[in-house]
Design goal:
There is one protein chain. The protein is an all-alpha fold and 35 residues long. It has two helices and no strands. The protein has one domain. The chain is flat, with a radius of gyration of 10 Å. The protein starts with 5 loop residues before the first helix and ends with a helix.
Length: 35
Amino acid sequence: MDVHDKQTRSYNMSRICSKDTKPELIVRSILLEKG
């Protein structure tokens, strides 16, 4: 189940790839919790 649309996901991925900042880690942990 994908809670994000493609645009949001590509934005998040580009942010994560450029730098693992604290907000990205929080978002990633939330996504992992949701499975």
